[in-house]
Amino acid sequence: MKKSLILVLLIVFSVILISETIIVEGNIQQAIDKAKDGDIIYLKAGTYKENLSIVSKNITIVGEEDTYLSYVGKDPENIFNSSPTIYIENSNVVIKNLKIGSVNSIGIGLLNSKLSLSDVDINLNNAYGIACVADKEEESFLEGSNLSVKDTNYKSSLNKRVTLSFNSVGIMLSGNSIFVANDIEIKGMKNGLILNNKMSYIYNSDFMENENVAIILSGQQKFINNRFEMNVETFKVANSPEVELVGNAFKNNSYNFVIKKDDCSSCPNFKRFSGKIIGFSNILQSPEISNESFGKYFWK
Length: 300
Known about the structure:
This protein is mainly beta. Helices cover 8% and strands 52% of the residues. It has a 23-stranded parallel β-sheet that branches. It starts with a helix and ends in a 16-residue tail after the last strand.
């Protein structure tokens, strides 16, 4: 027993010893290519104009205060023709304290990987904040805490009549991917969330002044203790997802629910809603737009 314990401690200690902190002031990709599993890449403050590729790595990226990673895609007509600002494949990555700017591209592209984001701001212009997918036999896991996704053109209306420009998508998930979000904010998006994935658990978050907060197409999607305010459409649901809402606050949204009642011949992946929506103790502060098809238990 003692020999086994000593062996485990030696293995853990050896991993700690071989882990390295790589300090970056110039090219981030060179540091990523050099990094070994367990390494920390520490970015000195400044603006880095490059896009990154992280493949088969288990690393942590930490930015100093005022660290900004910026990338402009080449095709504004089709952002998927450009590489993401950060592409992650078959990896386990932690990103902390970083500002990411994407124009005509995807901020973070995640494939068959695990990604944890904390204290990260993603600023978009004609872009997707995060696209998370998984192959059929694989899984992706996206975790966000204190994460902000905004359009660079977003300016809060503060209850005044202003024209908002919606041209970006916050977070899109599909396939066998799981999303856990705590204390995130999504503002000024054409589509805040597109959920066509296995499961999401979203809580303690703010969604304000989006054209659509969430388009929900599949999976188990849970929203708990979130705030939805001044959005055009909060939830648009189709296909057969299971949506659970508990303790959310809805205020001054034009439509809280848009339910697809018919199949769409021109969009075969967007079929009539046949799933279920359940909820408890949600607060609706716009009674004139209440959906009478929901039971009294749904709203306070």
